[in-house]
Amino acid sequence: DVKVTQSSRYLVKRTGEKVFLECVQDMDHENMFWYRQDPGLGLRLIYFSYDVKMKEKGDIPEGYSVSREKKERFSLILESASTNQTSMYLCASSLNLRVGTGNTGELFFGEGSRLTVL
Amino acid sequence: GQSLEQPSEVTAVEGAIVQINCTYQTSGFYGLSWYQQHDGGAPTFLSYNGLDGLEETGRFSSFLSRSDSYGYLLLQELQMKDSASYFCAVRGMTTDSWGKLQFGAGTQVVVTP
Lengths: 118, 113
Known about the structure:
The structure holds two protein chains of two kinds. Chain A is mainly β. Chain A has strands at residues 4-6, 10-13, 19-25, 31-38, 42-49, 56-57, 65-70, 73-78, 87-94, 108-109, 113-117.
């Protein structure tokens, strides 16, 4: 059974703390993604990676950084947490989209990490 | 870039049919996907339209018309378990959007007895 595992379901941190959110997938997927989900705003892409040590900014990268040292692991880092980063964070992975192969680009999501910054 | 619009909420009774529209403005994309998310759960993939037309998967169907910049998800024979949020999403193909899967804000479907 395919699986994306996020290290923490719930975290409470204080303003200014450094926060690490870890994500591991066991499907040998090339692509990994970090989204945040807020009511009324849907899922917004923070960063994604299409290969080890590669990263691309999404739509809202400010205040975040990522690390992909191994294919199966993609970490999201909040260098100095702020209250406006209180949110649900979702990690996902997918195969590379190769046009014509019938690959739908399906994303497999983890259960999410709900972060509260006080 | 891409912008997707979908209704915020739809309410229907069990057994009914619901259509969730997704209109988009994008300079190019690989296809339109739909995801379902139950409260407290992870989004899960429902369907993908790489070409124009209708794709059917059991009670759910999805449609895409690139010329109209429009797609929809059709939920038939609604069941209580279909109460969830439904998101449309497109994957970009332009230089600045390649690889990104962009989501709409989601439609909350409420199924009543």
